[in-house]
Amino acid sequence: MSNIPETGRTSRVTVRLVAIQILVFSLLLTLGGRLWYLQIRNGDEYANEAKSNHVQQVVDPATRGAILDARGVPLADNQTRLVVSASRTELLKMKDDGKAVLGRLSKVLGMSEQEIRNKVRLCDAKTPQPCWNGSPYQPIPITDEATTQQALQIRERTEDFPGISAEPTAVRRYAAPGDARTAQVLGYLSPVTDEEIKKAENSNSPLLRSDQIGRSGLERTYDSALRGKAGVTRYEVDNLGRVIGKAENDPAVPGSNVVTSIDARVQAVTEKELDQAMKDSRKEFDKITGRNYKADSGAAVVMEAKTGRVVAMASSPAYDPNAWVGGISGKDYAHLTGKDSNYPLLNRATQGQSAPGSIFKVISTSAAVNAGYPFNGHYPCTSAMNIGGQTFKNFESENFGPISLGRALEVSCDTVFYGLAYQQWQKDGGNKPKSNAADWFYKTAHQFGLGKKTGIDLPDEVSGRVPDRSWKKNYWEANKDGWCAQGEHGDDYVSKIAKENCESGMKMRAGDSVNYSIGQGDTLVTPIQMATIYGAIANGGTLHDPTIGKAVISPDGKSIQKIAPKAHGKLPDTPKTLQQIDSALAGVATRGTAAWRFQGWPQDKIPMHAKTGTAEVYGKQTTSWFATYTKDYTVVMTISQGGTGSGASGPAVRKIYNALYGVDDKGGIDKKAALLPVPQAGLPKIERDGTIQAQPIKPVAQTLPDEAGREEQ
């Protein structure tokens, strides 16, 4: 018998019962509070979510707008193709993750099973192309080239191909009218990523998982206008997924059309002549390196001088934007992004940087005049000049005696500009620069628009480089440790240069200024920058923002948003100086370094102006430059490792002008054969239904016999 009193036992039981009651009450209170929070506090939110769980959305992609040339010819549009797609979500529900289905699909499509698997895998930092960088919940296109028979097999045997669809779909087409690829100008598309969708949530142009967006070129610049707005149809479904009704319906809105200033006929000629010039350069022997020229890349720009509108823009190596349609293959991706193919995705006209060589001398001429040197003064054009113990030679050691700045441009005399730059360097303090150094040659380059972007309506334009005192100092600070380390060892040329840069790389040395005056050294420019500059000389001094877009036109043709040309500055020259430079550049084409390329040109009817350039690049063959203009157009061409300006680029530029004006090799003009573009202020004819009437393309193949002649610096 227990010795515990009865009252003690009763007390313990009472305590336990009270504790249990408190615990139960606490649980009920917690549950009640949670129910209040879910049903009252956040009731509306969860009610909406519950409702959406029974609504399924079907996205109807918008038809992307077309990109048209100035005459209404489609450069990029859409065509209906049979697209076979796979639902990754459905495949992953299968025990084998859809392996058997993809195996059967490979036999129907005639593709390897591995190729199909690669296309449906998701992209990440470690996954090589091909892979899918869009939403994992969106149907992933496997091919857009399915035949009718293949599509029927898939659709008639749905039990063998769960998660696989074969539907007629509007896909992007890059038409290349008249063989005008216009690749880097147009750009390409790829699926939107989840990060991009999130970023665009609160913008005026939100993205859906089914969207494709522009990745480069005009496709990227005008993406929001071209893309339109996808339609969404919402269906009410029960818990088993059966449709029980139709909810809201937002119809798709097609994208707008973008009319450009590109003329497909001129574009085709420009691309053809650039390619041919590069092929011809590779046949020429380089005496300095002892092998043929590589001519590994090039660019050409045809621009309307008075407005800055781009009529043609070619870049080589080029590519076919259609490779991206329907998902790019691993082989194509490797080719487009690999070093062996020299990165064809780059637009060399806006992203290619190199020393300009002697086409830079128009800037040095302006700098000299603004610094107080008379244009018609007499300056010694000697065969060589010794500065600081280093000999700077004129091209082929020619000696023209005392000449004016105009004549120095005509014969491209280096030593005239060497002397002027050296004098200015001394006036600015030499190795001990003045605090208020005038730096005319560098200041003028900035005033001409170098060292900054032109503002062209293409993405990822680069700014080039003006190697002034500020740049020299920043560059030295960023590289001095490496130079000092390299200069401590070895007596070879590279080590000696490194040691010199370590000790005095922050200084503007005499050799820097002398080389800079003829477009050598650390100066970098792009073809579009030089086209803008020569266009400004042609039009009387106005620097335009180069533009390609002319108008954005709504699908019904009722709304037209014109894109007017804009100017961003004026050349720092008086009208008299501009006229003198203009006259000298005409002399280059008639009796100077470019005269042998313009023999037979109707100079009295269509005055031609030109400047040749051959830029030396350490460790590489020379870069060819040819800058020209008439009252109507500016044409600039460059070929990396291609040789001299007139020798490599000259024939191609002449043939472009032949096509533009209908000129034959004897100077005759056939206006019917001329490819003079439509007035750039106008637009193609637009019908009431929004259809844009395109003018036909007439292929033109004009040639001009190459004459032997004098090459130039």
What is the tally of helical segments?
A: 23
Largest β-sheet summary: 7 strands, mixed
Shape: globular
The total of beta strands comes to 27
**pLDDT averaged residue by residue:** 88
Q: Segments where pLDDT lies below 50 for 5+ residues?
A: 700-713
- Quaternary state of the chains: single chain
Strand content: 15-25%
Helix content: 25-40%
Distance between the termini: 123 Å
Radius of gyration: 34 Å
Structural class estimated from helices and strands: alpha+beta
Question: Would you summarize the structure shown here?
Answer:
With 713 residues, the protein is α+β, with helices and mostly antiparallel strands. The termini are far apart.
Overview of this protein structure:
This protein has 23 helices and 27 strands. It is globular, with a radius of gyration of 34 Å. The strands form nine sheets. Strands 2, 3, 4, 5, 10, 20 and 21 form a seven-stranded mixed beta sheet that branches. A five-stranded antiparallel beta sheet has the order 14-13-25-24-23, with helices on both faces. It is of the alpha+beta class and 713 residues long.
